[in-house]
Structures are given as C-alpha cells and as structure tokens.
Protein 1
Amino acid sequence: MRISKTRFLDLLRCPRFYDYTQSVGDTIDPLDQDILEHLTGDAEDLETLTKAQEAVLNGLHERVEREASTWVRQRLGGHTIDLDTSGGQHHVERSVHGHVWTAELDILNPTDTGVHVIEVKASTTSELSKLDFKLNGVYHPVFVKNNHVHKLVEETAPYLETALQEKYLKARKNLFDRLHKVGRHVYDLAFQRFVYEGSIDYDSAKAHTYYLALLNKDYHHDGQETYDVVNGEHVISLIDLTTITEELQSVVAEDVRQVVDYIDQHDNRYQNLIKACQKGTPRACPYLTQCNPYLKVDYNVDELMGSSYKDTARFAHQESKPMIADLDEADRSKKPKWRMQYDAIVHDTIHVDQASLKAFLSHLEYPVYHLDFESFAAPLPRFKGEKPYQQHVFQVSLHIEREAGMCDNTLDHVEFLAEDHRDCRHDVVAFLLEHIDLSAGGTVLVWHKTFERERLKELALAIPKYASELQHIRDAVVDLKDGFLGKGALPILYKKALHGKYSIKFVLPAYTSITYEGMAINNGLLAATTYATYPVIDPAHFDHVLDAMRTYCKQDTWAMVTLLDVCRNLIEQNSTD
DNA sequence: TCCACCCATTCCGCTTTAGA
DNA sequence: TCTAAAGCGGAATGGGTGGA
C-alpha cells in the first residue's frame, strides 16, 4: 500500500480508522479536505464557492510557499527545488514493513555545505512563542532567534540552571506531542525526514538541516510590493528543528510500526472518544459520528456547557449516558449550568434571570448603534502596518436605534462595503466617524465584543490621526451576548433550543424567526471568502454578489435590533404578571 | 527557633467559546 | 487560519498554628 503523510496521520489516530476506510470508504477527498482546512476550518461554509474562487484561496497558501522559497534562497543560498521548479515539490518515498510511505518536501535546498529541507506552514510563530515559560516572574524563551533563524535555546546557551532546566524540559516536551499546536508541525517535519532519509534521494554523506518555515507574527508590513526585512523582521521565520526531528525519528519509526499493526489487525473494536479524534477542530476524524452516533442527536452530553471531550467520553462511553436527559442527580449537581440544561430539556423550562436582564438593559444608552464588521485575514499582509493574518475590515453595517424600539430596518440602516481590493481602512474609519455620534452619549452594540474591539484597536493604530475618536467608540462598545450569557454561574437567558451555545447561529433561531436560509451569502466566512475572490467573480454577476453581501451584513445587525427587542419584551412580560 | 502541616489565596496552563 | 476572554483545576505560595 502507498501511504502519504496525511493518510499516515489519519491511520495513526486509532486502531479503527483503517477498518472504516475499508468498510465505509473515504468520506472526504483528502485533497479537498486539505484545502478547506487551511482556508476556513469549516467545510460546510464553503459549499457555494466556485472552482475559480477555490483556486484563488488555494493560491494564498501557495504564495506563502513562494515567499518562503525566496527567503530561503536569500538567507541560506543554494539552489531551491520547490513549487516553481520543473518538478514541483520534491516527492520522496521509502519502503518499510511492506508498504511505501510517501512525502512531498515543500522546499529542498542543496548548497555547497549541505542540504536544507524546509516544510512550509501557512500558520504563524504565535504558538511557538507561547512555549516560552515564566520563572520568578521572568519570561524565558524556548527558541532564540539568531540571524533570522530560530534555534532551541539549548543550542545557543547549553548550560541552563536547574530550576530553568526543569521548566524548559516541560515546555520542550510539547514539541514531541503530535496533537499539540506546535508539536503537530514538528511531527510533520519529522515524518518527512523519516521518509526522506530512507529514500534513494538521500545522501548521508551530506549534512542535513531541517527547518519549519512559518509566518512571523512580529513582522509589520511596510506596504511595499516585495517582502523585505522591516525593522529587523522578515515575514517568514525559519525554525531549525534538526535536533528535535532527529530525536523524533525513533518515535516516527514506532508509529509507522503501529500503523502497520493497525492495518494487519483489522481492529474494529469499540473506540472511546479520545484526543486523537480531534473533536471540534478542523482536523476532526471524518468518522467521528460513526464511532459516536449520539453526537448527531439533539441534547446529547456534548452540549453541556463548558464540558470537555473528556466529560463527553466519561458520560457517553464509561457511564453509558449519552443524553443529557440520562444524567443522574449527582451529575446534574456538578455545575449549576448543567442542572439548568437538564431542566430545560426534561421539564422544558425557560430560564430568565429578570434582575440581571434588567440591569443589562438599564446600562444601555440611546442611541444604540448596532454594529457589525466583516473582515478578511490574508496570510501574507497586504498593507502598511499589517501583520500576517491581520483582519482587514472591508464591510460595516450599522442600524441606529434612536430610542428603545425605534429602529427601521431600511430607514435607520447605513453600510459600507469595499468594492475592490484597495486599502479601505481610511474609508471604514471615515464611515464610522460620520455615522456614530457619541457626543450626547450612546451605546455601540455588537455580538461578541472581542472581535469588533480588536478591529477598532487596529484601526486606531493604523490611522493615529483618529485614534482618540476610535478609542471613544471602542469604550462605548457593549456586548449584546452579555444580555443572554451574562457573567454569573448561570446565564441570564436559556432555553433548550440554544443547545448550550451562545453564537448568533444558535441564539437567532432560538429567540426569533429570522433566518439566513435561502440567502446567497449566509455567514461571515462566506462573506470573507467572497471578498477575497472579487477578482475572479464574473463581472456580469459582480453587482449581484455585492448585493448578496449587503443583504447578509444588514441582516446581521437587524438580528441584533430584534434580539434587543426580545430582551425588553421578556422584562415587560414579567412586570405585568 | 525551627519545621511540618493545614487552609486559603494566587498563579498558571489548558480548554472552550465566540467572531471573521 | 487568527485572536481575546473566561472558566476550570491543579500547582505554587504564603500565613497561621502547634509541637519539638
């Protein structure tokens, strides 16, 4: 059998995976899954994209590879074999235990002194820097950057004092965990190395260095066409993982052996929900609901608020209680929220914390500006001051409610939409300052305030001239979600239709009749990808597409107007009792 | 005076949730 | 893919107490 890296990692999940591929068949084309994973993380939301749009999105990832390639040539010299060379990515394979293991090396870079092998990831150094640890209030790095290359601190300062050593080893251990955010990239590289070093292409007489190429989270673009070093930072960071991947070779060899055993054994025994299922992530096992059919059923224990996959595994598997209604008194009393959810399902109770809801509403000042941003995050920054994956706001919707309940869907609505890919930050700021007037008080209402507040902060940084005005808007932001979820041990509002969730996707159908069904653009991710693919949209349809985007964004803020009304009505009903 | 022990508080890392 | 906030639980810290 030929086993690619992706296939190998899937088979390694659990003993049962191989049997599923035999009996159920592949549920998702591995190639498609890779594209989806990189670009959106949610397969459902991409269904309406055309092939041309998919190609554009895929190209964004390829651009990162090209930048990495350019940077490798500049930094390390030599001659690179990559996407753009005749053969494309360098294919390698190795025969072990009667199977052929294959890998595609993103960049192979032979120089006079040795060979560099580089795996490019379209993710940032953010998680890498989170490995850093604190001792006595002082932060210590796990990777040290020298001459634009990150190396393990042990390779630059080998003698660490004992207390540091202990903490360091703990942080370092994450690099060996293939399910860890950084570790999975390291493991990928280690597998590439395993295959490469057993292939006919490998020349053991040469020195080999293994790098991960990531986007540098500390890079701020200078707005130029090409990516040069700006303030000592380059958009690509190279991580030297030669030592770690060397140590990982025995682990990979053991895992390869393990996969062969899984294939030979045809083990289809009952499998508990484990971390390797990657539930709730873009890398979730495609057979998750085959192993755990209860996950498809409404009101299962996975809906319990604040529960982890371990809780789900314990209830559903160990204790055979897959439904919230199955929970006994002891389970329910563990968390007030769990009891509330149980009551909502079993007794159909509707939870309303009148006092907290009143308090929330009394804090609102009118006019209330119902605000929503749509934005797009490009892996490679496009405009001056932007970082990799920085969210660029391209659309704003605003419903203005002058007095409680006084808001017309059309008359009190204003919007901004960028119709091309030029830097629109100034336009967005001008729009906000023109329409949001807080001089006589007022509230800026959003759903999930972290998002809009971060964008306002970035806009203030990008356009310092209006920093204080933007800060003023930012200070006036109130999260409508707080009126539902609240801050206490129990939410302010709950009913079983929420399924334990407070995203707009669940709240809207639970409390209103507003629906996004039948809309060409019906979620934020689709709006963002549509913006990203402007250049390939058929000009004959372009106006139609812009209309669809406007309709969607307008509906988002109108939904908030409606939900605020729902809150007020819940109070009124009670006070007339 | 020292130290073991208990309990309460704080710190820290990890996970979950939400937005695009 | 990214980010921040919040919650959780375990580890670390620190104060008080009592016995040697």
Protein 2
Amino acid sequence: MPPRSYVSPARSAAAAETRERVIEAASRTLREGESIARFSLDTVAKAAGVTRLTVYNQFGSRRGLLEAVFDEIARHGGLHQLADAMAMADPRAALDRMVEIFCAFWSRDSAVARLHDAMATDPEFAEALRERNERRRRGVTALIDRIAGKGASPQTRKDAVDLIFALTSYPTFALLSTGRSRDEVCRLVQAACRAALAPLINPSS
Amino acid sequence: MPPRSYVSPARSAAAAETRERVIEAASRTLREGESIARFSLDTVAKAAGVTRLTVYNQFGSRRGLLEAVFDEIARHGGLHQLADAMAMADPRAALDRMVEIFCAFWSRDSAVARLHDAMATDPEFAEALRERNERRRRGVTALIDRIAGKGASPQTRKDAVDLIFALTSYPTFALLSTGRSRDEVCRLVQAACRAALAPLINPSS
DNA sequence: AATTAGATATACATAATGTATAGTCAATCC
DNA sequence: GGATTGACTATACATTATGTATATCTAATT
C-alpha cells in the first residue's frame, strides 16, 4: 500500500529557511575564502549550523549548492533591469546600458569570481553557467540585429556579437579590474563595444 | 664527517630523460583528459612508467609539475618569434604579428586550456602563470608607447594596454574559438586591437 | 496516537595530495 | 674491486574531500 503523503506548510517553510541559511553561508564562505580550493561542504555546513548531510538533502551535491548560490546572486544582481534596457529606442544606448548592468553584476558579489573558478573543476557546473550566460548572448544578438545595416553580412554580425559577448564576460571584467574602479571598467568596456560596432555600418572591408 | 658528493653525467642524463618523459606524459594526460579534475599524479606516473614518488622527487608537487609542463609548452610554442615582431619598424604591424603569435600559441597545445583551469584551484600556480603573462603585457606596453601620439595621456595609454592585454589573453581566445578557426579568431582579435588604438591618436574625447 | 518530512549521528567507500622510511641497483670514487 | 652515492622503488601512513548508506530523533500532520 502506498504511504500517504502530505504537504506541510510549517515544515516546508522551515526547510526553505534552512536552505536559504545554507546558501547564505555558502556565498559568505566563497566571498571570504581566498580560493575555491578551500570551499568544502563541511565548512559551509558548520557556518550554516547544519550537518553536511543536510546540505546533500537540500542540494544533492556540491554542484547543486554552487548552482543555487549563483542563482541566488543572479536574483539580486540587478539583471532584471535588462528588460528595460532592451526596450530602449536607441540600440546603442541600450548596449551601453547593458554593459553597465553587467559590470554592476560582476562586481556586486565577489563570490561570482569563485563560482567562475569552480567552472574549471566541474564541467557540468561550467555547462550550467554557460547556459545562464546564453541569455546575455541573445541580448547582444538582438541589439546587433537592430544596429546592423542591411549590408552587414551574417559573419560580420556574428563577429560583432561574439566580440561584445567576450568583452562583457566575467573574465574580461576581472582582467580589466586591476587598478580600476567599477565605473572605469564600465566606460572602458563601453568604448570597446562601440568600437566593435564599426564594421556593421562601414562597408569598407 | 661530510659525505662526499659527486656529479654523475650518466645519472643526471637519465634523470633528465625521466623528467622529460614525465612532462610528456603529463601534457598528454592534460590534452586527452576532459577536465583538470581528472588530472592526478597517479595517472601521470603510470603513463610515464614511473612511480608517483618519482614525480615528487622531480617536481616537488603537483604545482611544480604543472609549471614544468607550461614552461615546456612555452619553450616550443613559438614565443621566441616575439623578438622579431617587436623589432619591426611599424608598431601596428608588430601588434598584428603579436596577435598572430599568441593565437598560434594558445591554439598549439590544448593542454594550455587545462593549465588555465588549474589556475582556479591553485592560487600560487595562478600567480606563476600571471607572472609569465607579464611578458606579454610589457610587449604590449612597449608597442603602445611607440604608437601613442604626444597628446595621449597616461590613462589613455593604460586603457589601451589593458584592453589589448585582455583581447590577447587566453580566456578571450577561448571564448572566440567557438565556431571559428585559429586564423579567423586571429583576424577578429587583430581588428579589435586596431580599434582599441583609436583613442591614442584621435584626441576627440 | 500513528505517521511523516526534515534533520541528525555515525559509519563507510573512494580518491587525491603529500610525507616518511626502508630498500634496490647501477654509476662513481678511491 | 669494494665502499659509497644518487635516482628510483615499495610500502605505509596521515589528511582532506566527496558522496552513499543506515538508523535515529523530533516536531508537524493526519
């Protein structure tokens, strides 16, 4: 006979709370730790005041926890502003705004640096993050299509998209951040992205 | 009484040979493995036909082995051509050539991808690789100084240097390599670098 | 009062790095 | 030729992580 099952408001609320506490502890550990190498589920569990097994119950694996942390950061990272940016009348202004939004996102929580490091050791996590980045690529593609003149070949468009995609990526942001404020990086990337648009209109190559 | 010590041509030659064999096995393992996570000294030692302890005797640690692999790749990676490139009369042509040399370098041995992944988990190894990249930065700086007009401010120069440094980095190369041949990536990066030079002469901002 | 979901306690399997100690064997020195 | 030395081996051990298994506890539901 099948065991009767039921949903419990109080229980699932408590579970959700511990889940959030674990995510918070994990992102704090990522922020404060100097390397992803030191990031262990044991440390996180202790910081959250739970057992390591609870982490497994909630997230399934280390990878699951890391994805949950990234999604939590993304939720509060200001990416919802992208909708407004994409709706702007001037696609170049929209691109500038897009760069601004992503610079703010990359610099908001230093845990994102460690999460990108985690891509190196966990291919499936890397794939998961890459999929989340595809949204950025789609946004860039849409803007390029609006900016490009009729004469722009598909290859020229693809080049512009991929170049701007690379310029707005986290690795580029991190490389440019040595000795630069967030705003300074933003202006530099904006200038580079504008320069990358040139081949789309000027048919001189 | 101090133990007498001596140098042994035959022994050090044999040691150098096993050292090379281990490096070769390590880079092969990195190339064939799908992730740095699977890269263990045990695997390398077996592939080289030696004991894991021999690896420790020769390289001290996992990090030491990885550095040795990178240096070996760099030695045969064509970076010596940089001297000729830097000696070119036209600094813009030199920059084009530089981009070419680095695109060839990044694409030559797929083990470099895994080595960059290793930066994520080993901060000291990351630092070691960063130092080796400083040579590229110095080269870019020298070219920018030759290209920049008198009116170019230090900040404008720094911006150009850092931007080109980022454009010629491995992460950028890897990001642009999806669906592009080495030469195509090279041309795209060259164009982006040329565009990054504009603020150096045109004082219109 | 019985049941159930979430969390705990404890143990175990596996894999990796790194250290320690003793032993093997051929090249070198006297 | 015999003692010594350097590279390598064999074996063992300590430590740290991830991930799985099993039994138990507790408070919320039925």
